[in-house]
Structure prediction request, 229 residues.
Amino acid sequence: GEDVEQSLFLSVREGDSSVINCTYTDSSSTYLYWYKQEPGAGLQLLTYIFSNMDMKQDQRLTVLLNKKDKHLSLRIADTQTGDSAIYFCAEIPFSGAGSYQLTFGKGTKLSVIP
Amino acid sequence: EAGVAQSPRYKIIEKRQSVAFWCNPISGHATLYWYQQILGQGPKLLIQFQNNGVVDDSQLPKDRFSAERLKGVDSTLKIQPAKLEDSAVYLCASSLDGARPETQYFGPGTRLLVL
Prediction:
């Protein structure tokens, strides 16, 4: 199965809050990331959280990490139409081999209704 | 600071043809990654370079894919011969060090369509 799982779709009204959820399986994960991908574009780093943190806030973005349940969430306050995109959760598991590859979920497509 | 550059942005080829992609990482970044993103999926790592050496190429289909980073800066990824299932976006990313978990910065990608 997938190492990182996300729901595929989320639809919210403009001005509401969006919450995108992610579960991961590797308890040794060191960093957890949220990337944004707009149509036809590459991946834009939104925010990240280190595994010894529970929460991180950055302007309209709030990341919550529940290590016990291996659950990560991204909350976008006051969601705007420009936030419409695919959001990827990604982890970097610990590797003694020196390869710190990102493992991505399939992405959650956020649609913002005006 | 300039980001990760990739070219071409789009490429359409027929199966069994060859294709090459180019990546220029962020200046000073020692580590370079190539990812393949198939439609509807998250990116998957193909190969990771540390300077001009390969750190991890375990998921690179070596019978048809090759990559090099001869001078430790730019990199090229080649597919020869291409198959229909190679249609995807090929993303290049770079990070400062690579010897520890750290943020990777992505280029815009090259969209490949194999007919």
Notes: The first strand of chain A starts at residue 4 and ends at 6. Chain A touches chain B through 26 residues (CB under 8 Å). The mean pLDDT of chain A is 89.
